[in-house]
Amino acid sequence: MPIIRFVREDKDVECKPGENLREVALREGMQLYGLKGQLGNCGGCGQCITCFVAIEGETAPGALSPRTAVEEARLKRRPDNWRLACQTLVQSSVIVLTRPQVSLGNSKARLEAARAQNLP
Predict the structure, then answer these.
(1) Are 3 and 12 in contact (CB under 8 A)?
(2) Regarding beta strands 19-20 and 89-90, do their DSSP bridges make them parallel or antiparallel, or are they unpaired?
(3) DSSP secondary-structure letter at 104?
(4) CATH number, domain 3-104, options 3.40.50.2000, 1.10.10.10, 3.30.70.1130, 3.10.20.30
(5) Bridge partner residues of 5 (DSSP)
(6) Which stretches within 40-106 are classed as H helix?
(7) Domain boundaries, the chain
(8) Hey, which bits of the chain come out as E strands?
(9) 12, 5 in Cβ contact below 8 A?
């Protein structure tokens, strides 16, 4: 079973292969949305782009589904490691930073620590 390591929340969550990242995050109580997304989001259709996350560290090939056409269009001017959680299927373990647009206290050390711990 894949493990999703949520850095900001300091929590590892198990999911089924092929499970939607947004659905897992919401089910596990992760704060996926900033204020704009809390006030109104598209419910997982990829239209509002408020559920973006950063995939941190190297991932195994095929760990995530390929970017969809919606992601390619919506994330054109965003970093390459950003994904829309609603469009992303998890196949194997990954490290995720929710709300990457919001600063994370001691971010460098926290990201290094998350990467240093082995994922199954």
Answers:
(1) yes
(2) antiparallel
(3) -
(4) 3.10.20.30
(5) 12, 95
(6) 69-74
(7) 3-104
(8) 3-6, 11-14, 19-20, 52-56, 82-84, 89-90, 94-98
(9) yes
Report pLDDT digits (tens) over 49-106.
Answer: 889 999 997 777 889 999 999 999 999 999 999 999 999 999 999 999 999 988 888 8
Distance (Å, whole) CA 4 – CA 41: 23
φ, ψ of residue 24 in degrees (nearest 5): -65, -45
Q: CA triplet 36, 19, 96: central angle to 5 degrees?
A: 55
Pick the closest to residue 7 from 80, 110, 90 (CA basis): 110
Residue 64 DSSP label: B
For 9-56, what is each residue's pLDDT tens digit?
999 999 999 999 999 999 999 989 877 777 778 887 788 888 999 999
Q: Is the pTM of this model over 0.70?
A: yes
